[in-house]
Design goal:
Number of domains: 2
Number of helices: 4
Oligomer: single chain
Shape: extended
Helix content: 10-25%
Number of strands: 6
Structural class: alpha+beta
Low-confidence stretches: 168-172
Strand content: 5-15%
Length: about 190
């Protein structure tokens, strides 16, 4: 399987955010390269895992990315435009942030070492209570339908909306006084400062 790496142009056939060389560099820098199974000793053997990791990040039910996609035809959720992270830092339009690349590397490593990235869970797996006899299970009404991997989500979190944040694509920014025809200002409180 050949990797088609997203270069920031919004490729319609991209299946990875990182090259094999970037993954190898990431793994070596963290002392993880030597812990990979011996069957995954070449770029060709690692490519399917990198693609699975990119698929994991592309699941937009799980990852509510900030900003909007650069193009409608792009295969992956990045590059995006209009992205300001949790701290207010603006990411240049048409780039793939280092956080996304590291998140993919982490997910690929976990997949290569035997973790299933997207397991199926009965009703999201969030159990509120269980009984043994007679058997009873109660699931949370707002149970998520997706699992998350803390080491990946922790890297990506500044680029994601939280459940309490609005997903508005654009917010109004008013710089001038707004004049509403027919409104006489009668509901304004009286000025009591004088």
């Amino acid at each position: 399987m050949a990797l088609v790496v997203e270069d920031g142009t919004g490729k319609s056939d991209a299946n990875s955010f990182v090259t094999d060389a970037e993954f190898v560099s990431w793994a070596k820098a963290r002392g993880r390269y030597d812990t990979l199974p011996s069957s995954i000793d070449s770029g060709g053997a690692r490519a399917p895992y990198l693609v699975l990791a990119a698929d994991y990040l592309a699941n937009e039910k799980r990852f509510r990315w900030r900003g909007i996609r650069k193009t409608a035809a792009q295969a992956l959720p990045w590059p995006r435009v209009g992205v300001a992270d949790r701290d207010g830092l603006v990411w240049p339009d048409g780039t793939v942030p280092w956080r996304v690349k590291q998140g993919q590397c982490e997910a690929a490593y976990l997949s290569m070492t035997g973790s299933e990235l997207q397991p199926s869970l009965d009703r999201g797996g969030r159990v509120v209570s269980e009984s043994v006899g007679p058997i009873s299970t109660t699931y949370a009404p707002d149970a998520p339908t997706e699992t998350e991997i803390p080491s990946v989500v922790g890297i990506l979190e500044p680029l994601l909306y939280t459940s309490t944040q609005s997903r508005l694509r654009a917010q109004p920014y008013i710089t001038d006084e707004v004049i509403v025809p027919g409104y006489d200002g009668s509901y304004l409180p009286e000025d009591v400062s004088s």
